[in-house]
Amino acid sequence: MEEYLGYVSGKPSKSKSIVLRNNGITSRYYAIDKAGNLLETNAGMTARAVKALMDNGLTADTIQMLASGTTSPDQLLPGHANMVHGLIGGRNMEVSGNTGSCLSGFHAFKSAWLHIAAGIHQNAVVTGSELWSKNFRHEYFEEEALKLQELEKQPYIAFDRDFLRWMLSDGAAAALLSDKPGPELSLRVDWIESRSFAHELETCMYMGAEKNHETGELRGFREYTDKEWLSESIFAIKQDTKLLGRYIISKGLEYTREMVQKYGLKAEDIDWVLPHISSMFFHEKMQTGYNEIGFPVPAEKWYTNLTRVGNLGSAAFLFIIEEMWRTGMLRKGQRLLVMVPESARFAYGYAHLTVV
Questions:
Q1: pLDDT above 70 (res 150)
Q2: Which of 20, 43, 131, 282 has its CA at a distance of 20 to 30 angstroms from the CA of residue 170?
């Protein structure tokens, strides 16, 4: 990985082996070459995913809505969804861009579903995508490492900056939603819900800002000079790992209990739990937590492809569903429970799908 991301100050990362041992990821995908040149843009990858859907009568001219989510757009403006529309072409259509981190693709999914359920559109395409590798190139941390070397003679960037360099993958996925089932196999969306815990918990993952770990307050990039943007790595994505470990499971289980009670879910009725998890470190903890809240879905019914594709953020849940679909794992009548946590300010999403 460091052959692609580069060595900060010419030195191997001190954090890499620790992070990789915990996350369990054995392979991932980067849209850059070893010189750090972009081989694809986020919008370009996403447009290719949308075009891959175009068969059985679906064309750029027949898409009525495009709902896109990403944490890592190619630019601040125009919006990512608009850039994707520009690349796929076709007719004028409704475009919805969803921001945030891991839940941005999930909320795009919900937005598309609600528009169809309301009868506004007959079809919609939803996308989730991430392109992080360029952000993690060593060039973006050299100024900070130089500053550290001048102050402390230790040219290693902080763990909260280095941590996510060894977690994330590049990729894009797209799904077609329609008011009618497909000719062979389809997934019926039964319900989609999400909750934010930002009123209780401080920021955990952030970008374009710096965090005061004593007060929990976030200071945005506008409060720094352009020189500080580099010397403080302001535009690096960072994670407060202590806060992550303390709350990501407990609050997720609190919300899980709420959904189980609201919809009368029974573990024996669920054929697959599809969790978006950032690290295999959390996988067993979630399974144990389900047992503790009286929702004991057995381990063999949990499915994730994290170890093979890496953490794909907003696109992760779509990649899981696509893999199960493509490999013939889905059978009519099966009930799927999709779970997507977001650590940025702690929010969670659940969706219940039935194979029809």
A1: no
A2: 282
